[in-house]
């Protein structure tokens, strides 16, 4: 027998073996032998074959109803889906489990697993954040019910991640108006963020964009409306430097402030002084941009 024939025979034997295993599993899945299913489901679960364990536990849901295995079957059905990273199905499993077996020994774990599923099923900040809001509410309820529970630290971490994502969503949404050069709308949007959440993690950037929006809105206004709008910018500028006097945004806003004072007829320096400050700022900004570009190129190279 040559090598080619041996290889073909081995492949055929492997395929027949796989078909045999598959047919045995399918027969077990379609059958009503609860004991065999229960044993096999845990064997698959322990081997990390969660698709099969989930299917077997699901098929046992009716067979185990009213027995001492009932809560175990439903809990591991949910846990199998969780291990498969099917968080939507797993969350539904754990929710039904808690409704049916509130006194089960698995109930405490199922409560946490449910909110963990909600957390893991949330979306990137660019997408719909309703799942994020639902997860935050569920985690808050869980922590109120178990304030000193063993999962407190994990819950606090989840809330921080989700809260930061909501802050970023609000910040980037407002920033879109600024990028579209709708400065009146961008100022309103940024101010509304702080009305809703004064502790937004992007607070410094938000107050900076409020000031820049009011300055650019004034700059692009018709002459008879510029005075009042520059005065609005002055208020925003003073608010910013009062809160962040050492901010890296300070030099740029100082320059905008001098320009606004000139437009209002209040600038006491010379034109040469103002132009010198503008050139100094542009030089520093270009240097910072080059540094940032180099940093981004280095990061891209590392990712490749």
Question: How would you describe this structure to a colleague?
Answer:
Mean pLDDT is 88; it is low at 12-16. Helix 9 packs antiparallel against helix 10. This protein is mainly α. The protein has 2 domains: 33-166, Serine Threonine Protein Phosphatase 5, Tetratricopeptide repeat (Alpha Horseshoe); 169-303, Alpha Horseshoe (Serine Threonine Protein Phosphatase 5, Tetratricopeptide repeat). The longest helix is centred in the C-terminal third of the chain and has 33 residues, at 271-303. The protein has helices at 3-30, 34-46, 50-59, 70-83, 87-100, 107-120, 130-145, 152-179, 183-196, 203-219, 223-243, 250-263, 271-303. The chain contains 13 helices and no strands.
Task: Give structural attributes.
single chain, about 300 residues, mainly alpha, Serine Threonine Protein Phosphatase 5, Tetratricopeptide repeat, about 0% strand, elongated
